[in-house]
Amino acid sequence: MRNMGSLQWLGAGVAFWSSSRNVFFLTVLLACLVSITPFQIGPVMPGLSSAFSATRSSSVVGGSQRAVTFDRLLVNVGNDFNPDTGRFRCRVPGAYYFTFTVGKYPKKLLSVMLVKNGQEVQAMAYNEFRKQGRKVQSQSAMIGLKPMDTVWLLVQESPDYALYSNAGPYITFTGYLVYPESTSSMGYLNNHLIPPGIQPDCPPPEDPSYSERRRESTEKGRSAFSVARTFSILGESRRHHNREALTFDVEYVNIGGHFNKSSGHFTCYIPGVYFFAFTVGKHPRRAVSVKLMTGRGEVQAMVFNEDMSRKREMQSQSLLLPLKAGDVVWLYSQQDERYAVYSNQGRYTTFTGFLVYPELNFMSPDRTFH
């Protein structure tokens, strides 16, 4: 009986020691987790997430309201978008990608602007056809935002303008945070016209800290740009032996400094899968033909409209591309006299690209399926 009691006491002691050891290790683990800062955990934290997508199932006539509002909210991560006012308010500073599609009302003009804060125009969708038929126009841009900045869609006040939608719906608005603010990235967030005295064919002066910031951005696996044109370009009758890239004078975002708006070239420094989107305006009485190119002129995607009417409208295109370090991506506009690209201060013509997945650890596009 004494031996049995000793064994029971010994078993209880072992169980108590084991339980105490587990509690000790759990306490140490929790202490370690508490000591980790949010930036060590990474941007997957809920507090650093922000995204919305909304649709509208009814039409809007110009003059009835200034902002496009929405009656169906599909996603609202962070609750930063108010569908009743149509306004997105920035909570997490950083680079955001916005895209919208709007329907053209029969026999009405279409003009919708993506604006920031008061009425700072970032980009626009436009169509001046007054035909009976319905169609849609799309636009997109990446914008650098600070806390409390607001982004919304502005409708022309005149009753000559209208947006069409139904239960389809034709009208959609989406935005999401691509890169939270960081020392390396926000240094490239700007929205300035090209400085006076710098010719479009010449690269801008080198910033002494440019190479260092590019290296930091590359180490962090961040690369994004968004640019626009505020003037048109007309094709000429003379033959061009070289395919010249479409250049830009407005820079919304250039994280890593990998895009040169004066040459129109994006150079890949971080291998991986990239998303590209572009929208171009059609010039009155000219056709439009713009291609997304890689390397020395390999066509990846294009927009085309051969209507030679005097009306202005827009064309959009987007896709994902796998890139290696050193690959170059650019837009090419057909350069003979039949073609042109239209834009003005409303910024009809935009070009955006950003890294979605770093590294080339994805399925080869040459793989054959059986």
From TrEMBL:
One of its GO terms (cellular component) is extracellular space. The keyword Secreted applies. It comes from the Eukaryota. Residues 45-184, 218-362 form the C1q domain. Residues 197-207 have a biased composition (Pro residues). Residues 210-222 have a biased composition (Basic and acidic residues). Coiled coil: none annotated. Residues 196-222 are annotated as: Disordered. Pfam families: C1q. It is found in: Secreted. InterPro entries: C1q_dom (IPR001073), Cerebellin_Synaptic_Org (IPR050822), Tumour_necrosis_fac-like_dom (IPR008983). Keywords: Secreted, Signal. This is C1q domain-containing protein.
